[in-house]
Amino acid sequence: MSNNFASFTQEDAQWMARALALAEQGLTTTHPNPRVGCVIVRDGLCVGEGFHARAGAPHAEVFALRAAGALARGATAYVTLEPCAHFGKTPPCAPALAAAGIARVVTAMVDPDPRVAGRGHDLLRAAGLRVDVGLMTDEARWLNRGFISRIERGRPWVTLKIAQSLDGRTALANGLSRWITGEEARRDVQFLRARQSAILTGIDTVLMDDARLNVRLTPEALGISGAVRQPLRIVLDSGLRLAPFAPIFDAPGDVQIYTRDVRAGIHHDGLTARGAHLIAAPWSDSGLDLGFVLQHLAAQGVNELLVEAGSKLSGAFIAQQWVDELVVYQAPILLGHQAQASVALPNLAQIDGAPRWQIKAMQAMGDDVRFTLISTH
Fold this sequence. Notes:
Elements: H1 10-23, E1 37-42, E2 45-51, H2 60-68, E3 76-79, H3 93-99, E4 104-107, H4 119-126, E5 130-133, H5 137-143, H6 145-153, E6 157-164, E7 169-171, H7 183-194, E8 198-202, H8 203-209, H9 219-222, E9 232-236, E10 255-259, H10 268-273, E11 277-280, E12 283-284, E13 287-288, H11 290-299, E14 304-307, H12 311-319, E15 325-330, E16 340-341, E17 357-365, E18 368-375
Parallel strand pairs: 3-4, 4-5, 6-14, 6-15, 8-9, 8-14, 9-10, 10-11
Antiparallel strand pairs: 1-2, 1-3, 7-16, 12-13, 15-18, 17-18
């Protein structure tokens, strides 16, 4: 439950769990900000709670303080991330908690953002508040793994999604692949997409599948108010083969193309006219410099990147150890050895060299099974 659970009570854990559940309500909307929840408790009762919904909107602590009003004085605030101490699009939350008379603040973790990084906790302590840090840290870090990855590693958290048969195939030898998995699994992919900052694929996948890579769920299905946030869609296209009339441009949201030469090809003017962002990226005989792409995306505020690609590009992400999370939708069918493999990896000389993964979760999706795995490298 916690990295430092012995210093907290069961009641503390109960309220932090509630704050984490509130933070999850911003899963699909808070980009590029972290997901944060706050609960204010006085005399064992919740007197105010809130979560951060969208960038530019009030933070979780503000909503909780508004709900608590005068009852905040002498209360305890449970927050899933260290309260901010800097002015951004909204005023800082740490001074607001102190001004409201909060007596104690319990946080799950320190905010890794250099603009905060302990300053919020220091400000609260200087104002005379008791501050306890480290309750349910693992859960809080998992909730904001993309934000933390961007800040601490300078790249997004990369999730590779694969839909495959029992024998690890994604399409027949003739290229036919619809539909390997059932309706429930395909619907779950839409929720997976909705949580991402960006979705990446290769040009061959776009051309072969007429891929749009957009979220096709309604706000009601996502349980949110306001419009559905569409992730940035990224295409790796060395020869700038993507045509401006491709279906990907008919879907809402931005398209960003990494290519060798932004002026190459006959489609340059048409692509820019459709609003595509063209970016020249380092390229070699082994392919695009994926590290450059990840760093470039992080500089744009991309926290979480979903890769939905063919076997070659998927294999490149794995072989170069860029994949943090693997989501596999396994269908109970066999396609045979001539069918297309889900991932193309270099031959191994010994088993010990095989990429290894830790199973985090397994869930039935109709007739299919979804595996969530975490890289151990």
